[in-house]
């Protein structure tokens, strides 16, 4: 985990492996800050959606016992939302380093031994198969 200290608090950047492990153990809540269209197309199962244009700290779920971890496509939007969390008084904000793309890259390599592009191609084939 990388830490960045700013005036308002601390931004934690979690690696995809750290996020996957903590999510599996029920220690974190994932918040997807991408658009609804991106979320519907593909997302991490169990993640909540709170798109960046509507992101306000008062809309975040109250989780005293779990860390909220934000993610987007590649990390830019989630970093912006992490700063919004800090400005809202959170003190600590966490994001998935590299975003959804990094998470998919790691997942595909570990589970299938293939690249992200190949996993997207397989996903598209699976979706097409369900439609026909």
Q: Could you give the order of the helices and strands?
A: EEHEHEEHEHH
Residue fraction in strands? 15-25%
Percent helix, as a range, is: 40-55%
Q: What spatial form do the alpha-carbon principal axes imply?
A: globular
Number of helices: 5
The largest beta-sheet arranges its strands as 1-2-6-5-3-4
Question: What is the fold's blueprint, element by element?
Answer:
Elements: E1 2-6, E2 9-14, H1 16-24, E3 28-32, H2 36-41, E4 48-49, E5 67-71, H3 76-87, E6 92-96, H4 99-111, H5 116-131
Parallel strand pairs: 2-6, 3-4, 3-5, 5-6
Antiparallel strand pairs: 1-2
Describe the fold and architecture.
By secondary structure, this protein is an alpha/beta fold. Helix content is 42%, strand content 21%. The chain has 5 helices and 6 strands. The chain has helices at 16-24, 36-41, 76-87, 99-111, 116-131, and strands at residues 2-6, 9-14, 28-32, 48-49, 67-71, 92-96. Strands 1-2-6-5-3-4 form a 6-stranded mixed β-sheet. Helix 3 links the parallel strand 5 and strand 6 (92-96). The chain is globular, with a radius of gyration of 15 Å. The chain starts with a strand and ends with a helix. The relative contact order is 0.18. Residues 114-119 and 121-132 have low confidence and may be disordered.
């Amino acid at each position: 985990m990388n830490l960045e200290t700013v005036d308002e608090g601390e931004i934690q950047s979690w690696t995809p492996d750290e996020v996957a492990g903590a999510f599996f153990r029920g220690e974190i809540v994932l918040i997807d800050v991408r658009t609804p269209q991106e979320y519907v197309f593909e997302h991490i199962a169990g993640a909540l959606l709170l798109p960046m244009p509507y992101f306000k700290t008062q809309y975040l779920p109250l989780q005293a016992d779990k860390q909220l971890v934000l993610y987007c496509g590649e990390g830019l939007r989630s970093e912006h939302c992490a700063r919004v969390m800090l400005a809202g008084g959170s003190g600590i904000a966490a994001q998935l380093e590299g975003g959804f793309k990094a998470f998919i890259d790691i997942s595909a390599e570990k589970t299938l031994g293939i690249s992200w592009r190949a996993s997207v191609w397989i996903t598209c084939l699976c979706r097409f198969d369900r439609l026909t």
